[in-house]
Specification:
Layout: H1 2-15, E1 36-43, E2 48-55, E3 60-67, E4 70-80, E5 85-97, E6 100-112, E7 116-129, E8 132-135, E9 142-146, E10 149-165, E11 168-179, E12 191-199
Antiparallel strand pairs: 1-2, 1-12, 2-3, 3-4, 4-5, 5-6, 6-7, 7-10, 8-9, 10-11, 11-12
């Protein structure tokens, strides 16, 4: 009985964790032709994200992102791409998440003045996951089943980067989830995170 309860709790915890990437730290500027970057972001709860991107031309970056519950590809195209002043881009990504898949589209806006670069973004994410069964490891009996489902949610990001140099920055970001469907709720109203970016 105890093992069945543990498996059911494990299943409930993980069935509710199918999310796309939840951190951003994106500004509106692209990396530029043949430039790359690696970013490490972490929340106050220990949730992490690792991103690697490469500039395919002056305005287009392509990369990969790994978070605690998601792995995928991402791209960013800067429509206004200025070394200083206002920049804006559209960001898109797709990949796999725990028990499913996701895709998102995001606006990324920033204003660089000296070493500071405040930024703000809005991301819309669609997550789909397939039907699954939680079974007893000893008997193989199905303990509980989860139907296939999908949901959409938004995330607002605000923060700022501080550029120590063109190849090294730190950032602070606050993010907040927006339920875009009835019955969808999020426990945390605001989630802070820190980021470290290294260029190459």
């Amino acid at each position: 009985m105890k093992s069945r309860l543990l498996f059911a709790i494990f299943g409930l915890l993980f069935s509710g964790c199918a999310l796309g990437p939840i951190l951003s730290h994106d500004n509106g500027r692209s990396l530029g032709d043949s430039n790359g970057s690696i970013g490490l972001n972490v929340t106050n709860q220990g949730y992490y994200a690792l991103k690697a991107s490469y500039g395919f031309d002056e305005n287009l970056d392509i990369g990969v992102e790994l978070e605690a519950l998601a792995l995928g590809l991402r791209g960013k195209y800067s429509f206004i791409n200025q070394e200083n002043g206002y920049s804006t881009a559209v960001v898109g990504g797709l990949g796999t998440t725990l028990g499913g898949s996701y895709y998102y589209v995001q606006s990324a806006n920033s204003y660089r003045t000296g070493k500071w670069e405040p930024f703000g973004s809005l991301r819309i994410t669609k997550v789909s996951y397939s039907a699954s069964d939680i079974t007893d490891a000893n008997t193989g009996d199905i303990l509980t089943s989860y139907p296939a489902s999908s949901f959409t949610y938004g995330t607002i990001f605000i923060g700022s980067k501080y550029h120590f140099s063109e190849k090294f920055n730190l950032s602070l970001e606050l993010s907040s989830f927006i339920a875009m469907e009835s019955g969808l709720t999020f426990a945390n109203s605001v989630m802070p995170s820190l980021g470290l970016g290294v260029g190459f």
